[in-house]
Amino acid sequence: MRLPFLYPFSVTVFCLLRFVLESSVRADDTAAEKDISFRTEIAPILQEHCVACHGAKRADGGYRLDTIAYLKTPGESGDAPIVPRPDADPVESGELLARVCASDPAIRMPSDSEPLNGTDIQVLKKWISTGAKFDVEDERQPLWMIIPPKMVSSPVSYSRPQPITALRFAMGHKEVVFGGYHELISTHAQTNGLVQRIVHQPQRTMAIISSMDGKFWITAGGIPGLRGEVRLTSMESAPLVKAKTLGTDLVLDLALHPSGQEVACAMADGTIQILTIDSLAITRVLSSHSDWVTQIAYSFDGTQLASSSHDKTCKVFDTKTWDIIASYSGHQAAVRGIATTNTPGEWQTVGADRQWHRWSTAGAKKVAGLAIAGEPRRIVTSQDKSVIATAEGPWYVIDLKGNKIARTVQSPFRVASLAMDQDSGAIALGGLGGEIGIWSLEDGSLVRQYENPFPVVSK
User: Fold this and answer.
1) How far, in whole angstroms, is CA 268 from its chain's centroid?
2) Phi–psi pair at 153, nearest 5 degrees
3) Among 448, 445, 314, 452, CA closest to 379
4) Dihedrals φ, ψ of 200, to 5°?
5) Mean per-residue pLDDT, 155-166
6) Are the C-beta atoms of residues 123 and 100 closer than 8 Å to each other?
7) How far is CA 177 from the centre of its chain?
8) Per-residue pLDDT averaged across 182-186, rounded?
9) How is residue 59 annotated by DSSP?
10) First CA to last CA across the chain, in angstroms?
11) What is the per-residue pLDDT across 349-406, written as a single tens digit (0 to 9) for each?
12) pTM (2 decimals)?
């Protein structure tokens, strides 16, 4: 007698179960049919684990894996790196899969580091089994150019401070902005109170500048040994506007052209790259150094661009023709920093030889020099004064009119970064232990010091 009541209920449950099962099957089918993206899933694996031994500088076994074109080219053995197969059999699917799946350490790749994890191997297998498709237009581009920058979340709280490798003043000298882990952190200069956390930044920030109109932050850095990048972020609402990958190692410094239309990037790979501000498009690559380019600076009128390098030289470029118009080699060690002076056509540099040099573009001749008690980190300048920070802590004020040390101030911590606010005459130092100190340029007095400016959330 209960059947008339149960029957509609049973039918409803059956239909509901059928809908759920069919939906699950459709979802599984959709996931199964989804192609693996070479740009976002395969290229990062190859760039991180393979390119060091199979790239332009080193190609073990005659195999290069740093571009798609080379990924399709057999090595010395004659075997193709990739052979698409529905079953992705490691033995029959090309040299790449055979090597990363090998159990014998003498055969397995990568040979100089840990084996690929299971997840990465499964992604490679699925990509090969679905046809090894390349979602890239130009197969000659290096892998680092086609890998989109990652949008990594910043930590909610820092368990310990980290080295402050870049900082600068903002809002006059009211705020200090410095690099955290995948973020910029803005604090009140007087109270160290948190103002803003600007996310989606490079893992390690090496340089921070603002656009000429004051609307954007331009940050540079990356992941050491893996990628160098520049990011453009709105100051008003802090969204990331653009991100550009520039190479396989850090961007170490930025310099804004006086016109505000382009930015020069000093690269750890020895190049200088010129980018437009609006789109971060690369307009010029200068390959005149054989080692890190440590700092770069435009002349006040923008007609010259100068660079310092670990290769012990400095270069000056004509910004119209991009010809080298001076090459200075007066330092006996790596050159850590370069800046303009109060005299057109003259530059000042600091080196690991603990020397400050002033020299002329004409003939690349030294004009003056000073000994520095400490290894210089960076140099910043105004019209008549310069400030040099050293790793050991002392920082120096150089009187450019008399080419002499006007003041020496001892920092209580080891220094990693330096900033100056010319209008207020304030100096900020970032420490290797995460400290920030603010001094008066006029008399060298310590205004504020913060042992840990990083956000900490109490449990």
Assistant:
1) 10
2) -70, 145
3) 314
4) 60, 45
5) 94
6) no
7) 17
8) 96
9) B
10) 62
11) 999 999 999 999 999 999 999 999 999 999 999 889 999 999 998 999 999 999 999 9
12) 0.82
Per-residue exposure over 84-104, b if at least 16 CB sit within 10 Å of its own CB, e if not: ebeebbbeebbbbbbbbbeee
Give the tens place of pLDDT for each residue, 95-124.
999 999 998 888 899 988 888 999 999 999
* Cα–Cα dist 172/261, whole Å: 22
Pairing of strands 216-223, 227-234: antiparallel
366-402 as b/e: b if 16+ CB within 10 A: eebebebebbbbbbbbbeebbbbbbeebbbbbbebee
In whole angstroms, give the CA distance from residue 295 to residue 375: 15
Whole-angstrom distance, CA of residue 221 vs CA of residue 228: 6
427 with 443: CB under 8 angstroms?
A: no
Within 10 A of 292 (CB to CB), how many other CB atoms are there? Answer: 22
Give the 3-state secondary structure of residue 386.
strand
CA-to-CA separations, 22 to 11, 30, 39, 179, 426, in angstroms, rounded: 16, 12, 32, 49, 67
251's tokens: 């961007």
CA–CA dist 42, 161 (Å, integer): 34
